[in-house]
């Protein structure tokens, strides 16, 4: 993570543009797919319509997340509302599964095991799918461009950046747009095989495959937002940077414990227990704490709150607590989930 200051407004503006563009595209595509699904009688096409409706609702939830999480701290929420972005993003993941995936499964199994009508005017379906693919590509390019640019800014690979990202909006849009493009290919295959073989089973199987795809995307996004919502550790680069900065302070003999938590996008809480030089007086320790807190917030733009607690490093209970958390001294691991 780069320690160079970033403009949060610019980051939020980029995410807002990505979400708004995706929402407008998905709404237009949902209407086209619904009309084509009614005309052709294709289960896969109707499943794709439900997919786009779910994606549109997802963008509304993400816009809500961006707006509500930007509210300043107050008496009731002294650390701000940053985590609200994770709550609404989690609801977005649930909506993808509840509306898109479940409807696709229903249409698919009804077609495979139940009665299905005859296929009509498949050309309409092909044209709508082609147009939808072109429109979805526009949204996908925007979301991919944002994620790739931010990954390059932090000198990370795309996958590493997606694993460590603390803003769920661009990741959600990228994943759902990628799933949308794959879903369109599946719908095209189901529509084509139905026309070639005359069997609606292929159309139903395509719808089931779309349901599986959406369920997988919903699970991945849900797991990401769950980790962020319950309080994930900060970026490892920030954790190690903060530790090294404190350890290098002349007043500090040892960093006994260091805990960090994401309080929202670009908002990190730091709690450090350090062993100060015993020769320092109480006033010296107080001034050192204030100075170090200011240095950390200035050096690491994401660090917004710092608490420094003076402790003796030889305390057995504290040492046992640290060992139980990290396994060995000075070892800070990043969770994979």
From TrEMBL:
Cation efflux protein transmembrane domain location: 20-229
Q: Which Pfam families does this one have?
A: Cation_efflux (PF01545)
Q: Which UniProt keywords apply?
A: Membrane, Transmembrane, Transmembrane helix, Transport
Membrane topology annotation: Multi-pass membrane protein
Transmembrane residue ranges: 20-39, 86-106, 126-144, 173-193, 205-222
Cited InterPro entries: Cation_efflux (IPR002524), Cation_efflux_CTD_sf (IPR036837), Cation_efflux_TM (IPR058533), Cation_efflux_TMD_sf (IPR027469), SLC30A9 (IPR040177)
State its location(s).
Answer: Membrane
State what protein this is by name.
Cation diffusion facilitator family transporter
Organism of origin is Amycolatopsis samaneae
Q: What is the lineage of its organism?
A: Bacteria, Bacillati, Actinomycetota, Actinomycetes, Pseudonocardiales
């Amino acid at each position: 993570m780069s320690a160079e200051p970033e403009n949060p407004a610019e980051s939020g503006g980029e995410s807002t543009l990505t979400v708004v563009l995706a929402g407008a595209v998905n709404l237009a595509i949902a209407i086209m797919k619904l009309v084509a699904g009614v005309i052709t009688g294709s289960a896969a096409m109707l499943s794709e319509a439900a997919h786009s409706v779910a994606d549109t609702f997802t963008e509304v939830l993400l816009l809500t997340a961006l707006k509500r999480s930007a509210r300043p701290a107050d008496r009731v929420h002294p650390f701000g509302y940053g985590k609200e972005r994770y709550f609404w993003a989690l609801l977005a993941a649930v909506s993808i599964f509840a509306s898109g995936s479940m409807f696709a499964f229903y249409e698919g199994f009804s077609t495979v095991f139940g009665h299905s009508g005859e296929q009509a005017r498949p050309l309409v379906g092909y044209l709508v799918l082609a147009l939808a693919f072109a429109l979805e590509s526009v949204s996908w390019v925007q979301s991919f461009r944002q994620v790739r640019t931010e990954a390059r800014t932090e000198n990370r690979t795309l996958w590493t950046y997606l694993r460590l990202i603390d803003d769920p909006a661009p990741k959600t849009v990228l994943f759902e747009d990628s799933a949308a493009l794959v879903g369109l290919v599946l719908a095209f295959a189901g529509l084509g095989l139905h026309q070639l073989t005359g069997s609606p089973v292929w159309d139903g199987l395509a719808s089931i495959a779309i349901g599986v795809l959406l369920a997988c995307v919903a699970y991945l996004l849900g797991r990401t937002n769950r980790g962020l919502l319950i309080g994930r550790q900060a970026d490892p680069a920030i954790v190690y940077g903060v530790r090294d900065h404190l350890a290098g302070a002349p007043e500090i003999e040892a960093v006994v414990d260091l805990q960090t938590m994401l309080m929202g996008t670009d908002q990190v809480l730091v709690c450090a227990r350090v062993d100060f030089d015993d020769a320092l007086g109480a006033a010296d320790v107080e001034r050192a704490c204030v100075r170090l807190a200011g240095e950390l917030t200035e050096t690491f733009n994401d660090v917004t709150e710092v608490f420094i607690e003076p402790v003796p490093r030889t305390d057995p209970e504290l040492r046992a607590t640290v060992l139980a958390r990290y396994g060995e001294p000075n070892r800070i691991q990043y969770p994979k989930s």
